[in-house]
């Protein structure tokens, strides 16, 4: 057995015999670092393009670009309310949809008074399933809806395994997070296609990006739209709108 008189010598001997493995590992590391760097640069570019560049120039004329009316689901609180206010600040008339009529009236009046636009309300509970869409269709029949914001969404009461989730909650997630967005698109898309303009914004979630433990159904419901909505719209006949659907981004405060 060869005598080893120092750790450094031992290390050098091992390193020499593993040289090709180290090179292979270095290549994997370089590939991984390059991939991550490209992703970070692309994300940074998107951040600048979507949130900073639009603030430099004059604001886009959304009415001319898309139409006079915007529909926001889940519009009386949080992100939906912020979208409604932002769109109203750009001069669009707003149709607000939520469950609570009193809250709807208060928010609609606030928006109308503050931004001097027309507002309309639709009382609907998206967890009720199919029956609500006929009245919504009727209410939107004569409005040239240029922007739809699919905002309404339900979350878990707390993280749970799929097997612990109640059947009622699962139906809520299906009806509110999946069916509502699909059906609302089905209601407004024919008009947009006919007018050859429109934009559809569907609010997703960070948990759409990876299957999230103990939020499986929520994560899946958000993944569906984040990943497939543009392709579905293409297939459903919105190819005319595709450019604007992919490119439009609004800034809002929540
Ligand atoms: N907040 C976050 O941190 C976060 C993170 C990721 C994703 N998101 C997504 O962003 C969207 C909005 O979230 P948010 O936190 O802003 O919501 P929020 O503050 O809880 O507001 C929910 C809005 O939706 C309405 N609503 C709730 N259930 C409804 C139903 N079944 N039918 C009709 N309207 C209903 C509520 O009004 P009424 O009670 O009067 O009906 C309210 O206007 C959701 O899609 C959510 O998944 C939020």
Strand content: 5-15%
Gyration radius, rounded = 25 Å
Question: What is the overall pLDDT average?
Answer: 86
Order of helices and strands: HHHEHEHEHEHEHH
- Please, how many helices? 9
Quaternary structure annotation: single chain
What is the straight-line distance between the termini? 71 Å
pLDDT < 50 runs, ≥5 residues = 242-254
Shape: elongated
Main sheet overview: 5 strands, parallel
Strand order of the largest sheet: 3-2-1-4-5
Hetero groups: NADP nicotinamide-adenine-dinucleotide phosphate
Q: What structural class do you assign from the helix and strand content?
A: alpha/beta
Folded structure, characterized:
This protein has 254 residues and is an alpha/beta fold. 57% of the residues lie in helices and 10% in strands. It has nine helices and five strands, in the order H-H-H-E-H-E-H-E-H-E-H-E-H-H. It has a five-stranded parallel beta sheet with strand order 3-2-1-4-5, sandwiched between helices. Helix 4 links the parallel strand 1 and strand 2 (93-98). Helix 4 packs parallel to helix 5, helix 6 runs parallel beside helix 7 (167-195) and helix 7 (167-195) packs parallel to helix 8. The protein is elongated, with a radius of gyration of 25 Å. NADP nicotinamide-adenine-dinucleotide phosphate (NAP) binds at residues 74-80, 98-100, 103, 124-127, 151-153, 155, 176, 203, 205.
């Amino acid at each position: 057995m060869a005598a080893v008189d120092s750790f450094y010598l031992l290390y050098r001997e091992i390193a020499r015999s593993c040289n090709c493995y180290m090179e292979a590992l270095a290549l994997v590391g370089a590939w991984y670092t390059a991939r991550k760097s490209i992703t970070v640069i692309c994300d940074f570019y998107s951040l600048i393009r979507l949130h900073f560049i639009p603030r430099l120039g004059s604001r886009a004329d959304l009415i001319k670009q898309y139409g006079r009316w915007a529909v926001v689901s889940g519009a009386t609180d949080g992100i939906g309310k912020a979208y409604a206010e932002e769109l109203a600040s750009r001069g669009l008339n707003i149709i607000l949809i939520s469950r609570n009529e009193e809250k709807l009236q208060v928010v609609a009046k606030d928006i109308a008074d503050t931004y001097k636009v027309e507002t309309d309300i639709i009382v609907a509970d998206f967890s009720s399933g199919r029956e609500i869409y006929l009245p919504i269709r009727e209410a939107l029949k004569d409005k040239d809806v240029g922007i739809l914001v699919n905002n309404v969404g339900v979350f878990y009461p707390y993280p749970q395994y799929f097997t612990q989730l109640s059947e009622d909650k699962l139906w809520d997630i299906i009806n509110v997070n999946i069916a509502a967005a699909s059906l609302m698109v089905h209601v407004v898309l024919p008009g947009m296609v006919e007018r050859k303009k429109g934009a559809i914004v569907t609010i997703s979630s960070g948990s759409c990006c990876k299957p999230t433990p103990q939020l499986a159904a929520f994560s899946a419901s958000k993944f569906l739209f984040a990943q497939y909505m543009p392709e579905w719209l293409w297939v459903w006949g919105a190819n005319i709108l595709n450019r604007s659907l992919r490119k439009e981004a609004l800034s809002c405060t929540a």
